[in-house]
Amino acid sequence: MNVVVFGAGYVGLVTGAVLANLGHKVSLIDIDRNKVEKINQGQPPIYEFQLESLLKRVISSHHLYANTEPSTEVSEAEVIFIAVGTPPLHDGAPDLDFVHQAAAKIGQHLNPRQNCVIVNKATVPIGSANLVEMWIEDGFMQATGQPVPQGTFTVASNPEFLREGRAIYDTLYPDRIVLGADHAEALDRLTTLYRPILEQNFEPPPLLNRPQGLKTVPLVRTDRLSAEMIKYAANAFLSTKISFANEMANICERVGADINTVMSGIGLDTRIGPQFLNAGVGWGGSCFGKDLSALIYTAWEYGYEPKLLESTRQVNDQQKKSVIKRLQEELKTLKGRRIAIWGLAFKPGTDDLRDAPAVGIIEELLHLNARVIVYDPVAMDNMRQQYAPWEIHYAKEPLEALDNADALVVLTEWDIFRQVPLQDILNRLKTPVIIDGRNIFDPNEARHLAIRYRGIGR
Ligand SMILES: NC(=O)c1ccc[n+]([C@@H]2O[C@H](COP(=O)([O-])OP(=O)(O)OC[C@H]3O[C@@H](n4cnc5c(N)ncnc54)[C@H](O)[C@@H]3O)[C@@H](O)[C@H]2O)c1
User: Fold this and answer.
1) How, if at all, do strands 338-342 and 371-375 pair?
2) Which of 163, 180, 189, 291 is the most buried (most CB within 10 A)?
3) Eight-state DSSP code of residue 159
4) How remote is the CA of residue 158 from the centroid of ligand 1, in Å?
5) pLDDT tier, 264 (very low <50, low <70, confident <90, very high otherwise)
6) Which 3 state secondary structure label does DSSP give 105?
7) Residue 280 DSSP symbol
8) What is the predicted pLDDT for the residue at 114?
9) 378 lines ligand 1 (CB under 6 A)
């Protein structure tokens, strides 16, 4: 099929590259010229496992190319995805400006004979499919002076559930595909587009083997409003699960229980399940906070007070702040202290710093006049660029960050950190203080080495 994707970020680029690898003809449209040039040279502008090799393959086979402006792409497309950003505004509502611009552009280039399915893949508030429809119609009217002829296009919803760091894997082997549309033909076309994934009959790319036993992927065919709501409900539930684990951790700390054992104990209950119960310094990333705020905002719009969701957010805010409190308890003043930070990205496997707990914690440390030395295997370049004025020292390897440091704070659970022996850490630190914000070390071993170890809920 001829596919166009507006927005070549984490979602658009990965979706485009995977669909191209399945044999579809994909054009990516992104307003960022720099990104477009990199993509056409086979260089991903973001870090994702195996994205570079996948991209090189689909560029060289001419299944994918990128452009800053559509020329004939939109008028020839059978399916157009909108995968542009929807960042939060100050009041928590998502900013739909990028979606509006993309929809208007689609309208301007729409071919009345094409019968195109336009798909919202960006996470947008419930009811946005109607808005996108209106913006496309406005764009068409602006370009032609005519209303869009009936049956020219349909807007559908296909929310995205990929996890950064595992984006290609999740796109190839999703837990489910959700399609929402008010016309059966639109659902049929999207089902056909995704058939190789639904039926799992494609050749897996190198190093991205199919999970054992995966034969088919569940498909949820529904209306647009329910599809849009599924995305928000999923992220609200996942962030609530983590905030629940953090709340339990805070109680565990007070009563002397160990959160890891407690969560393993409850996770064995099949009604609960073991995933997403890791206590730590809180969730972050471009989606959870933004989507939770957007859902809270939607509830308010309808006069409903979503108390559980508000608490999920509050627990997370408190959890991020608890790192500074723990440091102050161990070191008293933080003025002039050297604090080593391991991990900047909001989770391992990505260079994404959006809403990463590390950013707020570093900002607060600098505000308190501490010296900050950081190490992260992939996110340091982004930190240098995005927070250039901040006086941060960048270490070349994890242990170098510890030289003469008063404390080590672990904020991302990269595997390379787990592999460092505690004795090596102890040898380099000036004061033996570890705030293990991701519970990667063994507290008993730390105590045995006389390290002042503070995990979360242990
Ligand atoms: N990142 C994730 O893990 C994830 C997961 C699921 C859903 N989502 C949702 O998917 C959407 C995209 O997220 P992302 O992380 O890929 O964002 P991103 O910021 O990485 O990428 C968005 C891209 O859209 C481009 N863009 C903006 N306006 C445009 C326009 N008018 N025309 C063409 N391109 C335009 C930007 O230049 C950018 O490259 C968001 O709604 C997000 O909530 C993200």
Assistant:
1) parallel
2) 180
3) -
4) 14
5) very high
6) helix
7) S
8) 87
9) no
Question: For residue 165, how far is the Cα from the chain centroid?
Answer: 8
Q: Is the CB of 66 under 6 A from ligand 1?
A: no
Q: What is the mean pLDDT of residues 36-58?
A: 96
- Cβ of residue 109 lying under 6 Å from some atom of ligand 1: no
Residue 383 Cα to ligand 1 midpoint, Å, equals 19
> Which residue is listed with tokens 């102890």?
426
Count, residues in the chain: 458
Name the packing angle between helices 307-331 and 357-367 (round to 10°).
Answer: 40
10-21 and 51-60 helices cross at what angle (nearest 10)?
50
Among residues 34, 2, 45, the alpha carbon closest in space to that of 14 is found at: 45
- Smallest CA separation from ligand 1 atom 43, residue: 123
- The reply to whether CATH 3.30.450.20 applies to domain 2-222 is no
Residue to mutate, 286, 292, 295, ligand 1, most ligand atoms under 8 Å from C-beta: 286
Please give the pLDDT value at position 329: 97
Which tens digits make up the pLDDT trace of 317-326? 999 999 999 9
Distance 325 CA to ligand 1 centre (A): 35
Tokens linked to 362: 């570093």
Q: Can you tell me the distance from the alpha carbon of 224 to that of 442, in angstroms, rounded to the nearest whole number?
A: 47
pLDDT digits (tens, 9 = 90+) for 179-238: 999 999 999 999 999 999 999 999 999 999 999 999 999 999 999 999 999 999 999 999
Tokens 């209306």 map to which residue? Answer: 223
Residue 34 reports pLDDT greater than 90? yes
CATH fold for the domain made of 239-454: Rossmann fold (3.40.50)
For strands 392-394 and 371-375, give the pairing. parallel
Q: How far is the CA of 173 from the centre of ligand 1 (A)?
A: 21
What tokens were used for 172?
Answer: 């190839």
User: Is residue 71 pLDDT above 90, yes or no?
Assistant: no
Q: What is the distance in A from the centroid of ligand 1 to the CA of 31?
A: 11
287 is catalytic: yes
Does residue 11 have its Cβ closer than 6 Å to ligand 1? yes
Q: Mean of the pLDDT values across residues 368-395?
A: 98
Ligand 1 neighbourhood includes 5 CB (under 6 angstroms): no
Check if 349 has its Cβ closer than 6 Å to any atom of ligand 1: no
Domain with CATH 3.40.50.720 in the chain: 2-222, 239-454
Q: Does ligand 1 have an atom closer than 6 angstroms to the CB of 234?
A: no
Report the atom number in ligand 1 closest to the C-alpha of 164.
3
